[in-house]
Amino acid sequence: MIEQLFPVAAAGALAAAAWSDFRTFRISNIWPSVLILFFGGFWLLGAEVSDPLSHLAHFGIALVVGMVLFALKWIGGGDAKLYAAVALWFPLSSGPALVFATTMAGLVLAIFYVLTRRWVAKEKRKDRRIAYGVAIAFGAVLCWLLYPTAAPKPMDVNEMGYGTFKLD
Predict the structure, then answer these.
(1) DSSP code string of 17-69
(2) Percent of the chain's residues with pLDDT above 70
(3) Which of these, 87, 55, 56, 84, lies nearest to 69 by C-alpha position?
(4) Which Pfam families does the protein's record reference (predicted)?
(5) Threshold 0.85, pTM exceeds
(6) Domain residue limits, the chain
């Protein structure tokens, strides 16, 4: 029962990371760490994670790709770590869906930045950074909503092999 709170808490951590990135263009290491810890708690308390190695592989690949993109100065280090932490919540087979959802959220965010640039102070107009943590957060939520089978689910007590459990 308590494991059902972990996805909600993860969404809250994602919202906090997105807000932090939007306000300061920085994502504290605490937010990816919290997402990883929440996934660990979610899994250890009985959530149905079909293939834990697939989730870990998705995390590892996302982290390596993110670090390469960071080295190329295409994204920030916080964005790379946040995306990898989000990727942990999805199996490797859902990787393309997560990339697509995050990319679409990033496209909407970029269009928003372009359209609102005229209302921003002149000294800030030269700043071409985009708070991509916002796109990562929206992409993750979008992926959870559009592909509900992609995210792990709390396990039904009756499916755990301990007989039938009923509350009367």
Answers:
(1) HHHHHHHHS---THHHHHHHHHHHHHHHTTEE-S-HHHHHHHHHHHHHHHHHH
(2) 79
(3) 84
(4) Peptidase_A24
(5) no
(6) 2-157
